[in-house]
Design goal:
By secondary structure, the chain is mainly α. The chain has helices at about 5, 15-30, 40-45, 50-55, 60-85, 90-105, 105-115, 125-145, 155-175, 185-210. α5 (about 60-85) packs antiparallel against α6 (about 90-105).
């Protein structure tokens, strides 16, 4: 059944059109990617007029920003819910696995959230706030690990380093730059790379002590 068949005109009302536009845009995003998602194609698929759609989203950029906002809010929610059940010893590994899992389930949305379509200088407040909310979940985890205040410089720096690590690893895996051997799970890759960091940091500390 096509999108046109599933969403005939009679199912769309003023009260829920914005929600329907976002839902269908989310589906289209995963099917064709952000570059090919257009307001015209979305309106054609839904059987609504561009005028009706533009009443809720003035342009394509506004629609994409709202999709990304929903993505960050969902990421923050899943990180908050699942990481709360982890012990201190499991938090870093578990957090990274949750993050990577979200990206795998929502690949196109994840790429939109961190992609060039949403320039930082033009980022609307609701998107900026949602992005910070997701980052704050990582800060809370790092604060627990370091036993430091949530707003300390140490926590923020360590959270930024952690985010850089898992975002970089996620991007390498999603774009097949890093080839994942058959039978090797995401959890195993995270465990290996985190263990390698420990070896690297121990070696760095030892070199400093010998100077």
């Amino acid at each position: 059944m096509s999108i046109n068949q599933r969403h005939s005109r009679q199912h769309y009302h003023v009260g829920n059109l914005a929600e329907q536009l976002l839902s269908s845009a989310r589906t289209m995003l995963e099917e064709v990617g952000a570059a090919k998602l257009s307001m015209r194609a979305l309106c054609n698929a839904l059987g609504v007029t561009p005028t009706a759609a533009y009443h809720h989203f003035s342009n394509r950029a506004e629609l994409l920003a709202q999709l990304a906002t929903e993505g960050y809010l969902e990421l923050a929610e899943v990180l908050n819910e699942k990481s709360a059940t982890l012990s201190i010893a499991e938090k870093m590994r578990g957090f990274c696995l949750i993050y990577l899992g979200f990206a795998r389930r929502n690949t196109a949305l994840y790429q939109l959230m961190f992609g060039p379509q949403l320039a930082l200088e033009n980022m609307p407040e609701h998107l900026s706030s949602a992005r910070q909310l997701a980052f704050s979940r990582l800060e809370m985890m790092v604060a627990d690990l370091l036993q430091q205040p949530h707003d300390s410089i140490e926590v923020r720096s360590a959270a930024l380093a952690s985010w850089s690590y898992i975002h970089g690893l996620t991007s390498l895996l999603l774009h097949d730059v890093l080839q994942q051997p058959a039978g090797v799970s995401d959890q195993r890759i995270i465990e290996r790379t985190l263990a390698a960091f420990e070896v690297l940091f121990r070696g760095h500390a030892a070199s400093i002590n010998t100077v």
